[in-house]
């Protein structure tokens, strides 16, 4: 066995599942590892909606700092939380094979037998500006209530509330075995760029650790999430911008869907593109520029002058 690697992780059940998954995969390649728990700023402030914090990397910065300070050897992130530009000195070591990228509507226990087609004006819980905007675009009479905390905490808050339902990432609920049987997959809601993917980060100078992690790398997932993150980057997007992006490989083609909304959900600009995988490397950037030319620049300009 090689030197035991220190894997940095947040302390939530989902973060620990993801870090343990990386540990197990490394052990399959004769690389021993242990977990090191690090608290993030996003875990310490559970009251402020994410979009109101005005910062990027709220769930990743503490781990990245620990990595740069040599307190850990690897950081494991939900890739949708990672800013498009990593801190200087850090490197993407591996992108794991993606789980479901979609969002789920988890209904209040008293509403579990109700179909979404039976929806009446209600209160839905989510602290994601993207989810909020897309939901309000489809259901403009609804109210959106902020909800923070880890998956377990949010499910508990939902059960104790009078809300109609709350929106979660499907991958997070599936990984820790908490997906309700009657949860509704929102396939019309375009997910956050890289949602459902796990990223392993190491220091640039640690070439041997980088090579050990490449055994975990899933090239198709990495290709798709790069397109999505290029789209986000080209739109100058972050936590405070409602942007959705999803790239999926279908045979020899790549199918991309993206959108940009104002926070109220009133205005939405969308794009769909299908091209061959061979020509898809620049798809995210070209789709973003096309969306801007078709009117999306209006929303970007409003945000920049706000």
Topology:
Elements: E1 5-9, H1 13-28, E2 33-37, H2 41-44, H3 50-53, H4 61-68, E3 74-78, E4 90-95, E5 103-107, E6 123-125, H5 129-138, E7 143-145, H6 151-159, E8 165-169, H7 170-175, E9 184-186, E10 198-203, H8 207-213, H9 219-234, E11 243-250, E12 253-261, E13 268-276, H10 283-304
Parallel strand pairs: 1-2, 1-3, 6-7, 6-8
Antiparallel strand pairs: 3-10, 4-10, 5-8, 5-9, 11-12, 12-13
3D architecture notes:
With 306 residues, the chain is α/β, with parallel strands linked by helices. Helices cover 33% and strands 24% of the residues. The chain has helices at 13-28, 41-44, 50-53, 61-68, 129-138, 151-159, 170-175, 207-213, 219-234, 283-304, and strands at 5-9, 33-37, 74-78, 90-95, 103-107, 123-125, 143-145, 165-169, 184-186, 198-203, 243-250, 253-261, 268-276. Strand 1 (5-9), helix 1 (13-28) and strand 2 form a beta-alpha-beta unit. Helix 9 runs parallel beside helix 10. The longest helix has 22 residues, at 283-304. The N and C termini lie far apart (55 Å).
Coarse structural class: alpha/beta
Radius of gyration equals 19 Å
Please indicate the percent range of residues in DSSP E strands (runs of 2 or more): 15-25%
Report helical residue fraction: 25-40%
Global mean pLDDT: 91
Low-confidence stretches: 42-55
Number of strands: 13
- The backbone outline, from C-alpha atoms, is globular
Please state how the strands of the largest beta sheet are arranged side by side: 2-1-3-10-4
Biggest sheet overview: 5 strands, mixed
Helix/strand order, N-terminal first: EHEHHHEEEEHEHEHEEHHEEEH
The first-to-last residue Cα distance is 55 Å
Count of individual helical segments: 10
């Amino acid at each position: 066995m090689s030197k035991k690697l220190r894997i940095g992780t947040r302390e939530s059940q989902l973060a620990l599942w993801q870090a343990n998954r990386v540990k197990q995969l490394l052990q399959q390649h004769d690389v021993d590892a242990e977990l090191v728990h690090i608290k993030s700023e996003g875990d310490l402030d559970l009251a402020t909606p994410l979009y109101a914090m005005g910062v990027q990397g709220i769930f990743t910065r503490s781990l990245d700092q620990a990595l740069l300070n040599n307190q850990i050897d690897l950081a494991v992130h939900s890739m949708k939380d990672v800013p498009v530009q990593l801190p200087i000195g850090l490197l993407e070591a591996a992108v794991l094979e993606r789980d479901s990228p979609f969002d789920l509507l988890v209904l209040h226990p008293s509403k579990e037998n109700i179909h979404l087609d039976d929806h009446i004006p209600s209160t839905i819980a989510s602290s994601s500006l993207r989810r909020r905007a897309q939901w309000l675009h489809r259901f403009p009479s609804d109210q959106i209530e902020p909800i923070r905390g880890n998956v377990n905490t949010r499910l508990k808050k939902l059960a104790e509330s009078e809300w109609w339902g709350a929106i979660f990432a499907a991958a997070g609920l599936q990984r820790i075995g908490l997906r309700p049987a009657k949860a509704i997959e929102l396939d019309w809601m375009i997910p956050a760029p890289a949602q459902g993917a796990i990223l392993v980060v190491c220091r640039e100078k640690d070439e041997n650790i980088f090579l050990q992690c490449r055994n975990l790398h899933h090239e198709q997932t990495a290709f798709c999430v790069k397109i999505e993150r290029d789209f986000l980057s080209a739109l100058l997007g972050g936590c405070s911008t409602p942007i959705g992006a999803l790239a999926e490989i279908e045979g020899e083609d790549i199918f991309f869907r993206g959108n940009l909304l104002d926070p109220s959900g009133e205005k939405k600009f969308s794009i769909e593109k299908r091209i061959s995988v061979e020509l898809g490397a620049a798809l995210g950037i070209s789709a973003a520029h096309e969306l801007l030319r078709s009117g999306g620049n209006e929303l970007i300009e409003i945000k920049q002058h706000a």
